[in-house]
Write a structure and sequence with these properties.
Elements (H helix, E strand, L loop, with lengths): L5 E5 H18 L6 E5 L1 H5 L3 H14 L6 E4 L2 H9 L6 E3 L9 H5 L3 E4 L2 H13 L4 E8 L7 E2 L3 H9 L4 E7 L12 H14 L1 H4 L5 E5 L1 H6 L7 E2 L23 E6 L2 E5 L4 E2 L5 E2 L4 E6 L16 E4 L2 E8 L4 E4 L10 E8 L2 E3 L1 H8 L3 H6 L6 E5 L1
Parallel strand pairs: 1-21, 2-3, 2-10, 3-4, 4-5, 5-6, 6-7, 6-8, 8-9, 9-10
Antiparallel strand pairs: 1-11, 11-19, 12-15, 13-14, 15-18, 16-17, 16-19, 17-18, 19-20
The structure holds pyridoxal-5'-phosphate.
The site of pyridoxal-5'-phosphate has 13 residues, from helix 10.
């Protein structure tokens, strides 16, 4: 039984995007191509982390290559992947100082050390188990989120590097403004990270690997590629706006539904809660069985469109379980296919379009597609 509103996840598209990224890196790298750390946090941006991880593992096995490192937001996400049989190395991005750390050891996860307190907690946990734990060290070069401050490392690093049960395998940072070509912070962060690399031996970081680039940085500046890159959005077939890369990407997720009813509205009548939409003429509207409980934003009312009969139908009202759309311009009938995200006929609604309509990023559009929406996989 599949609800009329469902998401279709194109796993061939996902592996094609992964290949396109690898080809770009191979063609552009001065030396050996950087590796790809596939970011599958937040249930792979709503696509289904286990299915995405397995597809990437299969693709690598098909080439006789080891699977790519995967990246999760927290230990629990990593444990879920291991429980499903995923064997690829898994990096955990999140701050761990207040987490239950058992999963790191029981499931062979690679944690990020992003604060002195996290280092202490991990060292104690590793010592208690007699384990030596490989970790990635996060440096805050200006985002002011997770990571050791870039300008204080001589004071903070020694405790980490001297922890007998921790082995720093890689050092990384994260950009705050990589998609914004005008913002000076990107270059400032890049240069701060460069300075740390230049001072690596003196800091006790000789021989580690380095990574920095999210999707936007990867596209924008190959100097950020280092030993590995960390694309999320690009894997799912979407370039971070406003970047328009010359890269063949296939949007992986589409979101489909059906018209459940069509009715007329007279001029002056209103639709939806708060009577915010007022018909300025006689209209025909269609009801679609998906609403904000499915992750569709309330702000789509008056801003969003969806495809019905190959035509763009404006969203008039959004409620918890349904949408009202204006289908005056098209012959719509109950049962007709509706596309909220993806292609119908010659037209496409992309996550970038939806994000632009309500003033957010495509990441949020994908991640918010709700738990009630069933994902069907192809293949
Ligand atoms: C989410 C995340 C990424 C991926 O970002 P995209 O913009 O989706 O490519 C990379 N690195 C870190 C640390 C992240 O949290």
């Amino acid at each position: 039984m599949v609800r009329p509103t469902h998401a279709v996840v194109d796993l061939d598209g996902l592996t094609a995007n992964y290949r396109a990224i690898r080809d770009l890196l191979a063609a552009g790298a001065a030396g050996p191509a950087p590796r790809v750390v596939a970011v599958i946090k937040a249930n792979a941006y709503g696509h289904g982390a286990v299915r995405v991880a397995r597809a990437l593992e299969r693709e690598a096995a098909g080439r006789g290559a080891p699977p790519p490192m995967l990246a999760c937001a927290d230990i629990e996400e990593g444990v879920e992947l291991r429980a499903a049989g995923v064997t690829a190395p898994i990096l955990v991005f999140g701050a761990l100082s207040v987490s239950d750390l058992d999963g790191v050891f029981a499931h062979d996860l690679t944690p990020t050390v992003s604060s002195p307190s996290a280092a202490q907690a991990l060292e104690q946990a590793a010592a208690a188990r007699g384990a030596r734990l490989g970790v990635h060290l996060k440096i805050d070069t200006g985002m002011n989120r997770f990571g050791f401050r870039h300008d204080n490392l001589p004071a903070t690093l020694p405790a980490v590097l001297q922890a007998p049960h921790l082995a720093v395998e890689a050092v990384y940072t994260h950009f705050a403004t990589a998609e914004d070509g005008d913002h000076p912070l990107f270059e400032r962060q890049r240069l701060r990270f460069e300075a740390i690399r230049a001072a690596a031996s003196g800091l006790g970081l000789a021989g580690v690997r380095w990574h920095a680039a999210n999707s936007a940085a990867l596209l924008r500046d190959r100097r950020t590629w280092y030993d590995a890159v960390r694309p999320g959005l690009l894997l799912y077939g979407i370039a971070p706006p406003p970047l328009e890369p010359d890269l063949r990407l296939r949007p992986v997720m589409s979101l489909r539904s059906r018209v459940v009813a069509v009715k007329g509205m007279r001029p002056g009548e209103t639709a939806g809660y708060g009577a915010r939409f007022v018909a300025d003429r006689a209209l025909r509207v269609a009801l679609i069985p998906a609403g904000y409980a499915d992750g569709l934003d309330l702000r789509l009312a008056g801003r969003g469109v969806l495809l019905v009969g190959g035509v763009r139908a404006p969203v008039v009202a959004v409620s918890m379980d349904s949408l009202v759309v204006d289908v005056t311009a098209v012959e719509a009938a109950p049962g007709d296919e509706v596309v909220l995200l993806g292609a119908q006929g010659a037209d496409v609604i992309g996550a970038r379009d939806v994000a632009g309509a309500i003033g957010t990023v495509p990441h949020e559009i994908l991640c918010r597609i709700g738990a009630r929406i069933e994902r069907t996989y192809n293949p």
